[in-house]
Amino acid sequence: MKQYIKDTYLVLLGIFMAATATAQQDPQYTQYMYNTMTVNPAYAGSTGGLDATLLHRSQWTGIDGAPQTQSLTVHSPIRNEQMGLGLSIVNDKLGPSNELYFEGNFSYILSLAQDHKLALGLKAGGRMLNIDWTKGRYYDKTDALLNSNIDNKIKPSLGAGVLYYSEKWYVGVSVPSFLQGDYYDDIQESVTTERLHYFFMGGYVFDVSDGLKFKPAFLVKAVSGAPLTADISANFLLAEKVTLGASYRYDDSVSALAGFQISSGLYLGYAFDYTTTRLNKYADGSHEFILRFQILSKSKQIKSPRFF
């Protein structure tokens, strides 16, 4: 009887998770507009100064083995802002798996007319995969696969991106890694081959009044064999201090975002996701915290806080 209940639970959970995503691969973020370099290396150096961002995300809280992600990105322009260098580290946990991304980012920035810039970016590094099958939703001591853990399996990564931007808007496209390798499939609970991820992003900052700015933004992710993932967000910046906004992830969740510009170089943000799928009966939502630190050049310090 206990085994039947357990199997029924696993089937239901699998259905709900499949309805939410088809085998989640690369981590997803609600505050993607402040964490761009994790998916597009061309963002490196675009803010005009040293920029460090720390993020923590707990997804589908209340469900054992649900995704948890931490990321750290650091980048800065070099050579009179003609190039950018950056480092991104991502720790992604899902069920019995743990994947660590460690990648360097480089961008070459072309200055065009009317203060427009075109950045060409490259990302290279490695990704380390660990899987402990005893922490899975279903563990069978007689199954050879579920007794063969994966320890520190390293695969190289190589990606590229393009970002076209000004002080008021940006649009970009990227592929974080062209090299395919093994990853943990949370739907099949097995190791399978990773698919290419394509990202398309954009945003615009409107000056509504002296003390109010409005920024709509979007991020679209395409993975072969999986439905498109599309995020649309709208944020307001009040008195250059307080950020309030909302976001919608197509056929998945709605989100509330809030942030505070503690000082000219320090921003603290929070996002809460409420899933719109049947998974909301079992999950308590997702929480995401972000801390952003910036040291801008003297020419940049007199301007408003950067909104992306």
In short:
The chain is mainly beta. The protein has two helices and 17 strands.
Q: Characteristics of this structure?
A:
single chain, 308 residues, globular, two-stranded antiparallel ribbon
Tell me about the biggest sheet? Answer: 14 strands, antiparallel, barrel
Q: What's the pLDDT, averaged over the residues?
A: 83
Tell me the fraction of residues in β-strands, as a range.
over 45%
Q: Count of helical segments? A: 2
Q: What's the count of strands?
A: 17
**Gap from first CA to last CA:** 54 Å
Content-based structural category: mainly beta
Shape: globular
- Which spans of ≥5 residues are poorly predicted at pLDDT below 50? 1-24
What is the element string, with H for helices and E for strands? Answer: HEEEEEEEEEEEEEEEEEH
Radius of gyration: 20 Å
Widest β-sheet, arrangement of strands: 1-2-3-4-5-6-7-10-12-13-14-15-16-17
Work out the helicity level. under 10%
Give an overview in words.
With 308 residues, the protein is mainly beta. 7% of the residues lie in helices and 55% in strands. The strands form two sheets. A 14-stranded antiparallel β-barrel has the order 1-2-3-4-5-6-7-10-12-13-14-15-16-17. The N terminus is likely disordered.
Please outline the helices and strands.
Layout: H1 2-20, E1 49-58, E2 68-78, E3 83-94, E4 97-111, E5 117-131, E6 150-165, E7 169-175, E8 182-185, E9 190-193, E10 197-204, E11 206-209, E12 212-223, E13 229-238, E14 242-249, E15 253-263, E16 266-275, E17 286-296, H2 298-301
